Every structure is written in C-alpha cells, then in structure tokens.
Amino acid sequence: MTMSAAITGVGMSDIGRKTGRPAMIHLAEAARRALDCAGLTRDDIDGICTYPGKADNSPGMSPLGTGEVRNALGLKTRWHSAVPDGPAQMAPIMVAAMAVATGQARHVLCFRALTESSSQTATRRASIPGAGRARLGGWYSYLVPANAMSASNWAGWMATRYCHEFGMTREHLGMVATGQRAFAQHNPSAVMQAPLTMEDYLGARMISSPLGLFDCDVPIDGACVVIVSAADAARDCARTPLTIEALGSALGSQETWDQRADLTTMGAHDACADLWSRTDMKPADVDVLALYDGFSIFVPYWLEAFGFCGHGEAKDFIADGHIGPGGRFPVNTGGGQLSGGRLHGFGLLHEACTQLWGQGGGRQVADAKTAVCGMGGGFIAGAMLLRRD
Amino acid sequence: MRPLPELTPENTAFWTGGAQGRLMIAFCGACRHAIHPPQLVCPECWNEAIEFKPVSGTGTVYSHTVNHQPWAPDMAVPFALAVVDVDGAPGVRVTAEVVGADPESVAIGQTMRVTFANIDDIWFPQWEPAP
Ligand SMILES: [Zn+2]
C-alpha cells in the first residue's frame, strides 16, 4: 500500500552556531531553496505545517509558528496546522501527507526553525525543558526537579542499560561519531567538519555517562523546509517525486523517558514495526538511512528498531563497517546532527532526499533509490520510507 | 535553584509524602494497578478511585548515569542519577537523584532506599544505597 503523497523539494538555510540571524531570515532562505528545488513558486504553496508551532519550552526551540510564517511569506493557504504532540519532529510531514492525500492541499510547506545556538544563555540552556521557570508540569516534572534536566541524562541511562545487557562499549559509539564526521567532511553545510579520531572521541569530556561530548548533537541556528505534494501535483515538479511509501507512528508505552519496561528499546521500535506492516518492502531494499542522532546511542536503537540487525546486534553491525562511508547501510551521510547540527530531524531528511536525487557530491551513495528516515528518541518516534521510482 | 514540580490533585501525595517519611505511590482502587507518574484515572481499567499507599521505600537500580555537565549555574557536578524499580509497586520506576554514594559506585541491581529533601512545599525523594 502506498500513500498518495511525495516529497518534491527540500531547502536548508545557511545553518551555523551563533549566526545572529533571526529565525525568519533562516526560514525564508530555506523556503526559497525548497521552492527552487521543487520548481514551484510561492503561489503554488497552499498548505503549511510545522512542529511544534511557536513554543518557548526551552530557549530557541521553536521561535516560529505557522501564523508568523504565513504572514511573513504572504502565503494564502487552504490548510494549515502545527503539531506539538505527534510522532516526533516528523509529525508535520506525516499530517501534511494526510492533508494532500485527502485533498486539503496540493503542496504543503513543512518547516522546522531553531535558534538554539543564539538563544541559549548560562541560566537558560538550550534543550532544558522548562528552563528558567519556577514550577514544572507534565512528564518532565518527574525528571527535571530530580536534576535529570538534560536529554543527555535520559539517553545516558538508556545507554548504560543497553551496554550492560549487550556489551556495547564507548568504542562502538565512537564509531558512530567518527563515521558520521567522515561523512560530514564531504558536506559543505555541516557545522563540524574537522577530522575526528577515536582518540579525540575517547579523550573528550564526559557529559552524562557513558555519553561524552561527541555523543551529543550540536545546537545551531537554522531552518529547513520540506515540501509535501499530492501524488498528481508532484508530477508538475522539477524533480522525480520521492514517494512516501510508508509511515510508522505507533507507540505502545507511556510518554515518559523512564517507564518503558525495556529501555533497551524505545518508541522507535513501535513506530518501525508499524511502518513495515504497511509495505511489502524490506530493510534489505533500503539504500540510505537517516536515523535520529540527538545522541549517538539512538543510532544503534534505530538500526535495531528498523530491523537492519537484531536486538543487541547493533554493536557488531557498526563494528563491521556497515553504517559508515562505503558501508552497505550508510547512516546519516551528511554528518547527522552529531556533526551537521541539530535541525531536529529535518536536516536528516533533507540529506536523505539529497541522496535520492543524486546530489550528495563526494558523499553520494551510488544509485540511491530508497531511504528510511527515523526521527526522535526515547518515547518520541516517527518513521518514514521513501522511494524514487 | 532547581525548578520544582507544580502540585496538582494527582501528584500532591507523591511530592508531599516525604513530610511523613513515606514514599506514596498511586494504586487503582479497583484493579490494584500501580500508576506512575500518578494519574486521576487508572490507565488499565479507567476507574477513578485512585488511592495513594506508602511503599517500603526500597528499590533496585534498573539503570543509571553520572552527570558531569552543569546544566544550571548552581548545579554541583558530578552526581549520579538512577532509574529505580520501586519495591511493592510492580512496573513503577522513579528517576532518582542519588545521594550518599560515590557517583561512580552506583550499579545496576544495587538495592537503594529512599530519603527525602524538603524544598518549599515539596519533599523530593532521593535515593541512597541501602545498608
Ligand atoms: Zn484499574
């Protein structure tokens, strides 16, 4: 079964650390590039969607909502939405696919904009939920007041349990980080391009054990736009449409980072099982992998969730060279968020599309026709399978 | 200062039980399901008769991490965080600030016991190695 929706264009702003550029300038640049990529004009855009909408949960996390972007870009839309609760940062792309499939819109501009690098201060760190507030509610009120403030802590205890059960070591996670850096050296827009050796990785300071500095992604300022089009409308675009073959959003456990019975799995496992139940394609059919790497440990989790290897086998899969440059299942070929910068999954999807359109330059995977993208960590997960026919 | 949880009808017993030295966990009055974080409705059977009961205050480390990064200006590092399976409340885990132990000494399977730190109107469960 195939959804009647496709990705027809992607665009990314000139991302960076402490760019000093307002979010809207990044967004406009990304939108312009996405329209150029798709061969569309502003007036072709009749839908808009984002995750999570304008929000100030943590500094620079989401400075723009659909209203401001509609106003600034002069969009006249038939459908608009923002999705704060949904299958990870992929949610706007998923609901956009449903919107075009049900005829609500033909071309939906999906965006993610962040200014986490410029916005964070010593007292209000990026990605610390509720930073600066006196009282907290919701799931993180059971974590942050216990001084478990950072997702690096939550991912850290997942990693500790995983390593305990399966014998993964820091070196395996280092292979993820150094492999992605090797890819980033061929990506001019990656924020970290200097060579990264295993010695550099192991020598870096610890953040939340067993995760060190190079296990954590990089906060940046930037924006990314992905255009989702109806299947019939996609034929009008400049490029071969990238058909959304299947989506996976299932979640079987509580929306917390500590209650899932087996923390050597995460929401991704539910979402990926759901995805494969909706297609005849198999992991062996996949050419390019875009796996959420807010922390390096999420990469083995996503590999296992998607079924590229069995539960507990990712350490050997990684050590055997499958995911780095030249591997059969290359992961995060633009450097990922670890080396490319944290665009909350949109950057990973941007890279997957770039690969499927054969524009990966020195990091291009030969004749890439299919890609998976998984966004989110912990209980947050959305999965996608794309194909270029 | 660390942010505090907002007290709500469903969570007040959990955050204030420490005033009497008790770790209070929510249970469904109908099906006995242990509920954490506490809810107003039992997620198993949708019964609304939620009862808080004291548990023994011991538990087992399911996993842990040592935090080295000061995420707030007054945060003293390093310190250990543990995810503790709570005795007497099947399926319930708490994220635990570890006290009274070398952070690097915390281990999976270790038995811990609760102690409480009072800030304002909140009694934070903290966990130390059981003797
Ligand atoms: Zn019940």
From TrEMBL, chain A:
Gene3D superfamilies: 3.40.47.10. Residues 254-382 form the Thiolase C-terminal domain. GO terms for molecular function: acetyl-CoA C-acyltransferase activity. Pfam families: Thiolase_C_1. Keywords: Transferase. InterPro entries: Thiolase (IPR002155), Thiolase-like (IPR016039), Thiolase_C_2 (IPR055140). This is Acetyl-CoA acetyltransferase. It comes from Sphingopyxis panaciterrulae.
From TrEMBL, chain B:
Signal peptide: none annotated. Coiled coil: none annotated. InterPro entries: ChsH2_C, ChsH2_Znr, NA-bd_OB-fold, Thioester_dehydratase-like. SUPFAM superfamilies: Nucleic acid-binding proteins (SSF50249). It comes from the Bacteria. Residues 54-116 form the ChsH2 C-terminal OB-fold domain. Residues 15-51 form the ChsH2 rubredoxin-like zinc ribbon domain. This is DNA-binding protein.
